[in-house]
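so ive been stuck on this for like two days lol. basically i have the seq below and the ligand is pyridoxal-5'-phosphate, smiles is in there too. i just want the complex predicted, nothing fancy, no docking runs or whatever. if the output looks off dont worry ill sanity check it later, just need somthing to start from for the group meeting slides
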Amino acid sequence: LFMQGGAIGENAIVPMNLLGAKTSIDFINTGEWSKKSMKEAKRYAKVNVAASDEANGFTGIPARNTWKLDADAAYVHICSNETIGGVEYHFTPDVGAVPLVADMSSNILSRPVDVARYGLIYGGAQKNIGPAGLTIVIVRDDLLGHAMPLCPSAFNYAEQAENDSMLNTPPTYGIYIAGLVFNWIKAQGGLVAMEAHNRAKAAVLYDYLDESRFFSNPIARDARSLMNVPFKLKDANLDAEFLKGAQARGMVQLKGHRSVGGMRASIYNAMPVEGVKALVAYMKEFEVRHG
Ligand SMILES: Cc1ncc(COP(=O)(O)O)c(C=O)c1O
């Protein structure tokens, strides 16, 4: 479905459509975006935090065998890539018969995904797909048709599906650009090629972070994001100088989110490996000067 309202909108639209006769939803809390999803879902359902990495400062994905899932939950919600924290699932969790729902806003189309293992996938288009204003939802047919009576028609998945996502005027320009991006990805060799590209790119940065004694990344190795790489300088007093030097070299938006501090390199599909190499060259120079 091509929807509107962004991923934040979907945080409400998903429960409105999927709760049905159930009363609770299981959430895996891996960071800021999980928390935002839970906050919104609380308006519609009982939120059960089945697992959380909060006590570890959101530096990994809680091991699957620690999740306390409720067999009667409407669905299990995960955020497949925590954009702010830089934590990504590198596996698809098995949650049995309960549908798995994923906010894939920031890693959709970065690598192949076995869509059939999910009940629903959603995401804002603005990272790997196209312009802001378009929201993508992939939903299993049998999950359609259970919307709450108060759910607006424009946000009712069954009604949108019946109308080929044109129940109301769709964001046509965003959909057009998304089509160009889909063709571009195909021309690159599809998602298998995107994954190879993204792995090679992220490795340039993580390899340097691991060898550096000045810069560091706190995320567990098996949960490191290929899209968003947070890192810290040894001395936070140098953050402003680092950002100024980066900007002078044409590298912008490196400041980390205020909830985690430090820096964050967002290296979505469109970022070429040369961009990451330029960042690492600058970081090495900075380390020699200040390390
Ligand atoms: C993982 C994740 N979820 C949700 C959102 C919110 O998306 P939107 O701004 O489209 O509502 C973002 C945006 O950055 C995100 O990265």
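The CA atoms of residues 54 and 234 lie 23 Å apart. The longest strand covers residues 46-52.
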